[in-house]
Amino acid sequence: MGIKVPEKCITVEEAKELQKSWCDTRLPEINSCLGFEDTREFWWSVKELKKYIRYVEKESKEQGIENPGIRAYFGAYPKEKCKMKKGYATLFLAPTGSPAGELGKGGDRARNNHSIQAYNSGSSGEPPISY
Description:
30% of the residues lie in helices and 12% in strands. The protein is α+β, with helices and mostly antiparallel strands. It has a domain at 40-109. A two-stranded antiparallel sheet has the order 1-2.
């Protein structure tokens, strides 16, 4: 008997549809505005993501946060800090959660926990790798 698939997983077909819709409705305008093909996918190893999740869990527990979360944000590197000097897009992860008993302590409306460092420095394909 295999591992139960988590509830929020989507099929390959659904993922392809989401990627196609994003590319069809946003990509031409973004690339035209920037003057280059920006990245649209980001990669981290499972090992490094687990390490970050353990860090967030440990720090959150020490702060009395019972159910921490992680929110993903789009970002863009300033041109002068970008290796390619273009200002490519990035995606970073931000821990969320409030100490037990506080209003809005969890879920998708939880506040960002700025006392725990966010996570970045994934890699991406050049050109971007389509789903």
